C-alpha cells in the first residue's frame, strides 16, 4: 500500500470521527413548535416599553461641576447636584422583526423631565444658588436585540447595538440672578445632554437583559407524574422571519428514572401562517407517541379488573356463571367462582392525527382467571384485543387534557385453557367492560392533563385547539401576571 493511500485513509477516519462528535440535535426535527406572531410581539412591545420606562425613571446623573469663562465677568465655577427624574414619556415606539437575527426596537419623540440644584461662584467671592428644571425632548433610541438558545435549551436575548440621541436639553433656572445663569446656560445644556446620552443605552441594555430571567422560567423539563416527564428544550436557534418568531422544542416524553429514546423519530411539520392569536403551539404525533412508548415500557399500561369495579346495576358480572352462559365448560369446571381480567398492552399504542380526528390504536391481551377460594388464580383463556378509540383534546389552564371513546374492537383467541369456544360470543361482554370500566379509568388519568411549554406566570386566554395532519395546533392569547 502506498504512503498516499494510507494518508487518504487516515484523513477519512479523522473526518468520520469528527462527524460522529457532531451533536445529534443538529439534525433533530422538533416534536413541538411554538410561534410568536406579530400580535404577540405587540403585546411584548407593550410589556417591554413599561420596563424601559421604569429603567429610564431610575436614571441617576452624577453631580457635575466645572468652570467656564463668561464675558464680561471672567471665570465662573458651577456645580449641578441632586439631579433626579420626575417624568418620562415614551409616546412612540415600534418593534420590528429582523429575519435571521432577532428584533429591532425604535423609540421616538420621547421626553424626560428632571430637576436639580445649581450653585455658582465668580469674582472669587460672589456666590449664588437655586434650583433648575431640565426638559429633554426629541429623544430617540434604536436598539437591536439578538435571540439565541442558551446552554440550558432555553431562549435568550442580548443587545447587539444601541444608539440614543437627545434632540434638545433645555434648562430652566429658578432663584438667583437670572442675568448670571443666562450667560452660561448653553454650556450647561451641552454638558447635561452628553451626560444623559451616556446613561440611556446601558439602561436599555439592562431592560433587555432583565428578560432572560423570565425566559429561563421555560419548563424545559416538566414533570408529568411519577413515571414520566416531558422535555421542552430547544433543538435549534429561534427562526426569525418577517412575520413571526418560531421556536423548535424537543417535545419528548421520558421515563423519570431512565431516559430512553423511542424506536422512532419526529418528522418535519410546518404550522400554517395564522396570526389571529398571539401564540401558536404545534404538538406533533411524535410527542404523543413518545408518551405511549414511555408508559408502555414502564409497564403501566395494564389493568386488573375485578367484579367490584363493575357498576352494581350492570347485568354483566365477572364470575363463572356469567361467562359460563357463553362458554359452558367454564361453569362446569369452575362453578360459583368470581373472575379476574388482566388487560395489558403487548406493543406501543399508536396515536395518529388527521384533520379533526385523533385516534389511538392499541393491541392488548386479555387474560381471564377464575379466583379460587384460596385466592389462587386459575387461567381460563387469553384473548387478543385490538381496539381503536377516538380522542377529544382540550386545553385546561397550562395543560393539555383529553378523553377517549371506543370506536371499535376486535377479539381473537390467543390461548384457551378450557377447550374450544366461539370468541365472537364474548364481544358484547368485552365491549361493556371496555366502556364501563377501562375507558372511564383511562379518562380519569387523561383529565389530569400534560404540561404545555410555558413561561413563569403565563396565562392562556381565548384558546382554540385544532387537530390537523400529523399534529395538533393550539392558538391562544397570553397574559403575564406579575
Give the fraction of residues assigned to helices: 25-40%
Q: What structural class results from the helix and strand content? A: alpha+beta
What is the count of β-strands?
23
The CATH C-level class name of the largest domain: Alpha Beta
User: What is the gyration radius calculated from CA atoms?
Assistant: 36 Å
Number of DSSP helical runs: 9
Count the domains. 2
Annotated CATH homologous superfamily of the largest domain: Bactericidal permeability-increasing protein, domain 2
Mean pLDDT: 88
CATH architecture of the largest domain: Super Roll
What does this structure look like?
The protein is rod-shaped. The protein has helices at residues 3-21, 38-57, 178-183, 185-209, 211-215, 285-297, 320-324, 328-333, 427-448, and strands spanning 32-37, 64-70, 74-89, 92-98, 102-122, 126-149, 155-165, 168-174, 221-223, 228-231, 239-240, 244-249, 252-255, 279-284, 302-306, 338-345, 350-354, 357-371, 377-396, 399-416, 450-451, 458-468, 471-480. It folds into two domains: 38-214, Bactericidal permeability-increasing protein, domain 1; 218-480, Bactericidal permeability-increasing protein, domain 2. The chain has 482 residues and is an alpha+beta fold. 27% of the residues are buried. The protein is 25% helix and 45% strand. The longest helix is centred in the middle third of the chain and has 25 residues, at 185-209. It contains nine helices and 23 strands. Helix 2 crosses helix 4. Strands 2, 3, 4, 5, 6, 7 and 8 form a seven-stranded antiparallel beta sheet that branches.
